[in-house]
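Lecture 7 notes: from sequence to structure.

We start with a single chain of 132 residues. Read the sequence below before looking at the structure.
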Amino acid sequence: RQSADQLSNLKTCNAPLYAITARQARDHKWTDALIINTNGHIIESTIANLFWIRDGVVFTPPLSEGCVAGVMRRHLLEKMTVREAMLTEAVLAEAEEVFLTNAIKAIRWVSSFGEACYTNRVIAAIQNDLIP
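Now the structure, written as tokens:
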């Protein structure tokens, strides 16, 4: 669980939570794992910011929830309409599309989480329109 404090929005070299969670993902043969905050809300993955699409609207957790203020996250917030909202497992299960962003891989489609499977039609358009 990540706290939502003054330092949580910064990516630092001292990030044992991310390293431990990434190791758990590898041990379970998952591509990645999600980080939750102390309120039980999903805020990001071990290496990326998280976005989801529902009814044609793109959402991401607000920085006040404790997620890292990523470069690609900021780029998408500047270039397109994105609503910030708290994310729970129930909300994620109802999402139509889910994607991760970071400065290294830009946008990465999430195909599934638990029993939920996601499409990537809007994500493909976002990639074509916003990523050089």
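The first strand starts at residue 34 and ends at 36. Keep this in mind for problem set 3.
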